[in-house]
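User: For my dataset I need records formatted as: sequence, then structure tokens, nothing else. Please produce one.
Assistant:
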Amino acid sequence: MRFSPMSFLLGLVAAGAVPIVSRAFRPFAVEAAALALTVVDEGRRIVAEQMENFEDVMAEARVRREEVAAAAEGEGEDEGEHSEPDAEAGSEAAVVARPRRRNTGRVRSHVN
């Protein structure tokens, strides 16, 4: 194999250029990593909020289903009578506890 002065010089330039380029590239790499972490954290926050909203809807649906089932049982006992329950006697059966909402420590604005 022959010695080529041109490839030797290119090798020296590359060996000197790599540390310079890596020093210049490092801040960009750090900024890109910081941006990626920010995007991932924001994505996790959005997913957590949407999961909380979904859980709230599902809890409300369960309560509604229980109310409908309780009303259907009440209609079955009356056998066709559609009267309002007494204020004193039926009030305990008609009241269904709503699930408690979680507070994330921040105020959410609801757009109608």
